[in-house]
Hints:
- Helix 3 crosses helix 4 (86-109).
- 66% of the residues lie in helices and 0% in strands.
- It is mainly α.
- It has one domain.
Amino acid sequence: MALGKHNLGTDSLPFPLPGLLIGDATVREPVRSPPTVAMTTLPDEALIERVARGDADAFSVLYRRYERPVFAVLLKLLYIRRRRFYVEHFVFALHYHAFAFLGFTLMRATAGTPVRGVLGVWMGVYLWLALKRVYGQGFLPTTAKWIALSWGYLVVLVVGLLATAVAAVLML
């Protein structure tokens, strides 16, 4: 085997890893390194300036900085009568986001297979089951809050993306 084609010794794996190997013919998108530790310590203003210059990693850092707290705030608003502390909602948000990260990782590893779609559906079902178990409500209230949480989280993400884009344009 040529050293330049597969130098990671992955030919013996029982499953393909499409798009994960540098130099592999199945790479579908550019391989990027994760944001540096120094970037994660930058203030929001500096990150927005980097987004204005087209730095996708800076937007990723901004998103990761606020995704779980926003999710927890949405939970707090949806379950305001439960009289739970914000930190309890935040722990639930951490739990679900850890599960979602695992799900997205498995979806990436199973690209091009039917397993990917099943994992996507399972992440939504798992959120519903977790809401029902943790907050102890019936089928209809849990379903309504699951839908509201999903749409609310999407709206907050889109508004955040647009606000970051506007701030980036204004800083030019």
